[in-house]
């Protein structure tokens, strides 16, 4: 029996909207740590950017002394516009006409046929979004060595995170020089986490690739948001010289903080010590410290840190989701993130962060009607569905962030 494409498409759009809705909360994966904790705020652009006013200095027109005093000259606080560049991302999947017709027959059939597919679609999009929020405008890894004959590269230990490369087989990647010149675009064939080795497409020319080159997802270079790592290290020499269009060299409150752990375990004391500069710049609020699973394991052995912890408290559950304790700033929550580099950790004031943009992850593609979520493929017998997002993490408090480096989990 012939498939009525128009009717099938209309039925699929209705079922998708009814079952999954627009916000997709029922499909958001647990590893979406940042997307779950940081709220999304829809905003309108001014030109290419979202513009937010930020205070960079205090008011300084203070007159001291009793009696008749000459008023101090007005020294107003400096306010500037932070320009937030949204990062657009579109992920596609497809269904043949036959599969689509079976899916569209009733709600039960639609759920059975799409639950796994859409769950994977949401996980894949969240994975890319989380990586941008962590390492956007940075790199996924820095090359330690390349073997042209074997089509392999080794990622250096300082930038390695198993969660970045888990299930990355097939992903197109590009390798750039430290100065931003493209070396080669290829794809990941295999990942060996124990040796930090990526096997790339056969016959990829790696003869020019050297230690220090940067690995990113193909197409992401210059098109990503600024991630937490760059925000935390802004103006320190380990991060960008400007943030959201404002020079970090001009304002101390627009400079992040880097704390070198010294090739040692990240302990409670080292977290306290690392937060001191941020507290000195006004950090008197709750912070989240994002750590790798390996770092969390060493921290869990710190008896002092276990005085208070948050966890799932169902009977028989002995593991913890996070460690929480009190510091000079207030509450400090140590949170596992599988994509955080094993030798780094990132501390930031969670309530200051938000996701700003035109659209959180949604099946509604710009330029189509509000109910148009399935589209006919132009050159194949089937339909495609797109998951779209346009947003950027905004954290107008780099001085209250800390990047911990040189962590050893041995």
What keywords describe this structure?
6-stranded antiparallel β-barrel; alpha+beta; globular; 7-stranded mixed sheet; 8 helices
Would you write up a description of this structure?
The protein has 410 residues and is α+β, with helices and mostly antiparallel strands. The protein is 21% helix and 30% strand. It contains eight helices and 22 strands. Strands 13-22-18-14-17-16-15 form a seven-stranded mixed β-sheet. It has a six-stranded antiparallel β-barrel with strand order 5-6-9-8-7-10. Strands 1, 4, 19, 20 and 21 form a five-stranded mixed β-sheet that branches. It is globular.
Brief write-up:
The chain is an alpha+beta fold and 410 residues long. It has helices at residues 5-19, 33-37, 97-103, 107-135, 162-165, 228-232, 268-280, 293-299, and strands at 40-42, 50-55, 79-84, 87-96, 141-147, 152-155, 172-176, 182-192, 197-200, 214-217, 242-243, 246-247, 258-264, 287-291, 309-310, 322-326, 331-336, 345-348, 354-362, 374-376, 382-394, 402-407.
Strand content: 25-35%
- Helix-strand sequence: HHEEEEHHEEHEEEEHEEEHEHEEEEEEEE
Summarize model confidence as the mean pLDDT. Answer: 89
How many helices? The count is 8
Arrangement of strands in the largest sheet: 13-22-18-14-17-16-15
Please tell me what the overall shape is: globular
Low-confidence stretches: 312-319
Coarse structural class? alpha+beta
The radius of gyration is: 24 Å
Tell how many strands the DSSP assignment holds: 22
N- to C-terminal distance: 64 Å
Q: Roughly how much helix do the residues carry, as a percent range?
A: 10-25%
Largest β-sheet summary: 7 strands, mixed
